[in-house]
Structure formats: C-alpha cells, structure tokens
Amino acid sequence: MATGVNAVLGVDVGTSSTKGVLVALDGTILRSAVREHSVQRPAPGHVEMDPRVWWSEFVGIAEELTAPGDLEVTAVGVSGMGPCVVLADEHGQPVRPAILYGVDTRAEQEIAHLTNVLGREEIIAHCGAGLTSQAAGPKIAWVAKNEPEVYARARRVFMPSSYLAFQLTGEYVLDHISASQTNPMYSLRTQDWHPQWAERVAPGLELPALRWAGEAAGTLSPEVTRRVPGLKAGIPVITGTIDAWAEAVSAGTTAPGEMMLMYGTTTFLVAGIAEPMASRTLWPTSGARDGVFTLSGGMAASGAVTGWLRDLTGEKDFTNLVAEAAESEPGANGLVMLPYFSGERSPIADPSARGVIAGLTLSHTRGDLYRAALEAAAYGVRHHLETLEEAGLPVTRVVAVGGGAQSDLWPQIVSDVTGLVQEIPSSTVGASYGGARLAAELAHGTDTSGWNPSDHECRPDPSRRERYDQLYRLYRELYPATRDIAHALTRLQRG
Questions:
Q1: Sign of the CA dihedral 95, 100, 106, 109?
Q2: Is residue 404 part of a domain?
Q3: pTM, rounded to two decimals
C-alpha cells in the first residue's frame, strides 16, 4: 500500500443504500462507492433490516475504495440512519433484525404506557420532548413485551453507526446525539443516561459509554485489516452519529440559526440552537460536539414517495420523471398531496396518518403526480419552518444536501414554497462526507471549514409565491379534513 497521499474514509448506512467516500485532507472527494439495499416490512407499521448487511456493505465498499493501493487511509468515519434499535448479545451479535427510526410505528401501546407511567410533562422536562414513534426507548420495550425469548438473549443496544464502530474497534460506545433519541432513557438536561428510566425501559441491558460524534470510538482492529488489506490496524475510528447530523457536519451548519435541509428517502432538517430546549412537536437533541445542541424534525416519507411513483409507473430512471415534473406547472395542475405514506413524524406525530392525493382528474399525468410529491415535501418543510418560528428560532442560513439536491428542481420548489434562499454545496454526498470530515479533524487536527463551499444558490421566484401560498393553505386544511377517514383505513390495514 502506497503511503504518499493521505485520505480519510467515510461510510454512511442509509435507508436505501450504504455510501462510502475517500476524501483527501483538503476536502476533495477522491472516490466513492454505493451499495443499494432495501428494508423489510414484515407487518403493517413494522420496518426492519438485518444489521449484518451493513457490515457486509462496509467491507465491500472499503475494499473497493482502497483496492488500488495508492492511498493511505488514516482514519475512518461512520454514520447511519436512526434512531434505530439493534439488540445484540454480549458479543455484539444481533438477536433480531434492527427496528428502524420513526417510520416504524409498532410501539404505540408502549409509548402510551410509558407516557402514562412516567408522566408526559416529566418526560418533556428530562428529555426535551414527549415520546413518539421517533423515540427508540419504546421500541426496546416493545421487544421485551412481545418477544421475551429474543429479549432474554439481548445484552447490548446499538444503532447503525455504533454497530459499525463496534465491528471496527470492538468498543461499545454511542454518541450523545443518538443517545438523546433513546427517550426516555437519556436526559437532555444532564446529557447523560437516566439510569432509573433506562432500567425500566430496557431491563438488563448494558448501556454503552457516551462519546461525542467526532471523538474516537477506538482504533481499527487487526481482524478488520485481514478482511480489508487497504486499511491499517491502529488508525482511529470516530464514534459517529445519525446520518442527518453527519449531513449537518458535511454542510457546515452547526451554529445557532443555521439549518441543514436533507433531501433523501425522508426529508429531514437539523437547526443549530444555543442551548437545550423543550418542544412538543420537534426533537431537541445534543449536538455533534460538547456545548452544541440542535432542534430537528423529519418527515416519514418524501423521497420514498417519488420512489414509489417510479416503481408504480415502471420507470427505471428518475431523470425522466424529473423532466416531466419540470414540465408540469407550479401546483401540479391543481393537485395537492399529503405525503404521509408511512404515517408522519414531525410536526404532527401521527403514525396513523396516510397519504392523500386530492384533485385528481383523468387529464393528470405522471409528471403532475411526481411534481405533486415534490411539492408535498416542500409544504412539509414550510410547516416545520413555521413551527421553528413559533418556538422563537428564526433560520438565518440553509444548506441543502442529499440525493434530491443533485438536481435543482426539488430545492427550487422548496424555495418557491417557503421563501428560503438555499445554498447548494459543491458536494451533496452528505453523511458519509460528514463522517470523513470528523475523521480528518480527529486524526490530523485538520481545519475543515473550507471543505465544502457553496456551489450556487436556489432563490425563490416571487411570481410563484401567491399560487403556492394558496396551495399551502389547502395542504394544511387537507390533513384535519381527512384525518378520521385515514385513521379508520389504518385500522383496516392493520386488521
């Protein structure tokens, strides 16, 4: 292996794929690789995945990126979707498939029970937010109640980033951002585990040591080097974090008032705040570094809806659908969609919400439907922004990242709907790049402030604002108007 050029490796486990990048110490992306995968939906409201797939994909990506042998990898960064629940035995071997983040809504009874027993106001006081499908704690309680024989074998709990860190180093750690979404097991007030509540929710589990996302989980073990000769034993591996917060690092949006807006399978936003705060509709968390906090929100399905439309219409290339949506006029020729195809996370926190397409006629095209899906996500972003403003948190800077930001159509629609000016960085790779950025800072003390400069901006078109204001009002009215029907249909779907 050549040692003339140093590079850092970043790998991120997403909902639909695992992505990896090799990055030079000046921030240049040297190589990238992707492994696509899919989730399993064994029952209504259940969304799972085999964690062993993540490790297999990491190994494959690392082998591919380092195979030429012309670079020396000096550190590894990891991140992953979340908050997820990976229950494992004392050796770190999963005892069941991972339960995914807020798109998995199985734990409604556990949420209600824990809220009743612990007290909603007390939970908010300690954790910053009430329990919703986004919280990992009730999902652990669900396994303990519904799969007692499986739970009896569990000793540890991981998330995708900490699972990769364990495989790479043998160290059992978890970052504060991930821990602050295991509510009610972690106290945002003290930024530490809440031992009494953790034992109630997850009896018998050994809790991981807490670290900041950019701190070292440990060093690469010799066993990994034997599987991936392009990696050297002893190099540092960061603790890592949830993908959206790694995306915020990749975008450089960590200061109060700055916001990362992620266009992906789900739409997600992370806004920096100066101090911890409570919210009844969004998710307060610890940040990537000590003394940093965030307020975040996420939709359960946005890019996932466009994928559904692609598959439904038999189209293989998103490019064709994007072109057809661009031909559809603002407002999708009179369509309004609720993108609640997997329930909804924030700000309505309704796992029984369902997708609605209002205004359909025989003259509508798939381009209209595709545009309506993009606009629905934009209306959801506006709903989040209004919620932030109500909390006294005006947004001063927005950086767009994720696969959906690689074309300007979707960000432009969001700017037109919200009035936001969005910076589009030179790299929209996102979380894997953020992990690499933290790895470079850890291993080399690199100043990464100039790593990912803005490439261009998306500015709102004032001529479209009146139209979108009208449609946004209809969007907000559509959910309460159809909620009872959606809930009744959800009950039928669940049998």
A1: positive
A2: no
A3: 0.87
Spatial distance between the Cα atoms of 305 and 287, rounded to a whole number of angstroms:
29
Q: Round to whole Å and give the CA distance between 289 and 301.
A: 29
In this structure, the chain runs to a length of: 495
Q: Is residue 387 part of a domain?
A: no
Phi first, then psi: give them for residue 366, nearest 5 degrees.
-70, -25
- The alpha-helical segments, DSSP class H, found in 343-445 are 366-390, 409-418, 431-444
Residue 227 in contact with residue 68, Cβ under 8 Å? Answer: no
Separation of alpha carbons 7 and 219, rounded Å: 16
Q: Bridge-partner residues for 273, per DSSP?
A: 293
Amino acid at 474: L
CATH code for the domain in which residue 138 is found: 3.30.420.40
- Count helices and strands (H / E) in the chain: 16, 24
Tokens of 196: 């009494």
State the sign of the Cα–Cα–Cα–Cα dihedral 247, 249, 250, 256.
positive
CA 388 to centroid of chain Cα atoms: 19
Number of domains in the chain: 1
Domain limits for position 109: 6-244
User: Per the structure block, which two tokens stand in for 63?
Assistant: 């082998």
Q: Is residue 381 part of a domain?
A: no
**Model pLDDT for residues 425-437, shown as the tens digit of each residue:** 887 777 999 999 9
Compute the distance between CA of residue 175 and CA of residue 157 in angstroms, rounded to an integer: 13
Answer yes or no: are the C-beta atoms of 337 and 479 closer than 8 Å: no
pLDDT tens per residue, range 324-367: 999 999 999 999 999 999 999 999 999 999 999 999 999 999 99
Longest dimension (CA), the chain: 64
Nearest-5° angle of CA 401, CA 405, CA 411? 110
Of the candidates 168, 233, 238, the residue with the CA atom closest to the CA atom of residue 436 = 238
Q: Is residue 481 part of a domain?
A: no
Strand partners, 457: 423
